[in-house]
Structures are given as C-alpha cells and as structure tokens.
Write a structure and sequence with these properties.
The protein has helices at residues 9-14, 58-74, 85-91; strands spanning 23-26, 32-42, 48-55. It is α+β, with helices and mostly antiparallel strands.
Length: 92
C-alpha cells in the first residue's frame, strides 16, 4: 500500500522551477517592464541581502540576471551607488 500521491499535469507543471526567475509587469498606463530578485550577499546582521532589479526589455533583464548572479557566485559583485566617481576621487 503506497502513500505516494500522483500529481496531475497542472499541479506538476506549477511545481517546476523556472530557469530564469524574470517576471513581467504591466503598469496601468500599459508600460511593460521586467524584474527579478537576486541574493547579492549578506547584511551586517547575517541575514541575506535580496535586491530587486527592473529593466525595460526582457533581453536586458536576462543579460543582467546572468551577469549579476555570476558575479555574486564569483564574489566580485559590487552594488551600484548614486554618488558620481568624482566624489570618491576628491575624498580619497
């Protein structure tokens, strides 16, 4: 007597993992954008640091998702900052 439950087709399909977790968003004005979340490291308190990235095209979102996740895996990812490079050059 087996207790294994056979999943029907719709249930099985909903459980598969997407290759690239990129989500499409359609704004009220009809503008389409694509976004994804990625773990980019850890916060000072030890919890994971998840960032949300938004792009205008799916191709751009795919390209950036691959770049960001591979940089995080290699340990070379750095977050973008709002301050211009000249500010860092004059302070140092």
């Amino acid at each position: 007597m087996s207790t294994d439950k056979q999943l029907s087709e719709p249930e099985q399909a909903s459980r598969t993992r997407r290759a690239e977790p990129i989500t499409q968003h359609i704004a009220k004005n009809g503008t389409v954008s694509y976004w994804f979340q990625a773990d980019v490291g850890t916060k000072p308190d030890g919890s994971r640091d998840r960032r949300r990235f938004t792009y205008r095209t799916k191709a751009e979102a795919r390209r950036e998702f691959r770049r960001i996740t591979s940089e995080v895996a290699a340990g070379i990812y750095t977050r973008r900052t709002a301050s211009p490079l000249t500010t860092h050059a004059t302070n140092g």
